[in-house]
Amino acid sequence: MQEDLDKAIEVLRNGGTILYPTDTIWGIGCDATNSKAINKVYRIKFRQPQKALIVLADSAEMIKEYVFKLPDIALELIENFRDPITIVYDKARNLPKSIVPDDGTIAIRIPKHEFCLKLIGMLGKPITSTSANLSGDPSPTSFSRVSQEIKESVDYICKTGQLEVQSPKPSTIIRVNDDGHMKIIRN
Questions:
Q1: Of 45, 53, 108, 147, which residue is the least packed, with the fewest Cβ within 10 Å?
Q2: Rounded to whole angstroms, what are the CA distances from 150 to 32, 94, 130, 134?
């Protein structure tokens, strides 16, 4: 796994894109603070920039660097929610405009996946997470279901997890406002 992490980190630090396993599905990732890399992800997916990308962080401390306020209720959800949970926060900061929707929010998840957590920790920054498919196509539940077109479009394909068969569940998405009010967007 370490060699795979090292290669992925090198690509991410150089503004590249990776195809990698997450706790939900296979995803396309890049350094979430690099606008050129983010634009490349949009091009790979043939996705409109108005459709926001999810960001993966490795800790609540990292999330605090990219949102103006981390409400207490969000911390409770992160610590106690068993299934994957993505939280949409008000007022993103320290991120390129290309990843932040017009309303200024940002969707962030702390994955429950060893490879992802190590990758983010080694990079020291969040990474993007979007399903490894062309916009509108079904999300790949395993590496074998990722299209050849996607595989040829990214700069590096992680080897970790390619042979694993998962029964992934998309993350629950909850909007948490700065004042602590919540709204379930996807359950």
A1: 147
A2: 19, 29, 12, 7
Dump pLDDT digits (tens) for 79-94: 998 888 999 999 999 9
CB atoms within 10 A of CB 151: 12
* Cα–Cα distance for residue pair 136/124, rounded to 1 Å: 31
The CA distances from residue 76 to 80, 87, 175, in Å, are 6, 12, 14
3-class DSSP state for residue 75? helix
Between the CA atoms of 74, 32, 186 and 45, what dihedral angle is there, to the nearest 10 degrees? Answer: 180
pTM of the model: 0.93
28 Cα distance to chain centroid: 8
Question: What are the residue ranges spanned by the domains of the chain?
Answer: 2-186
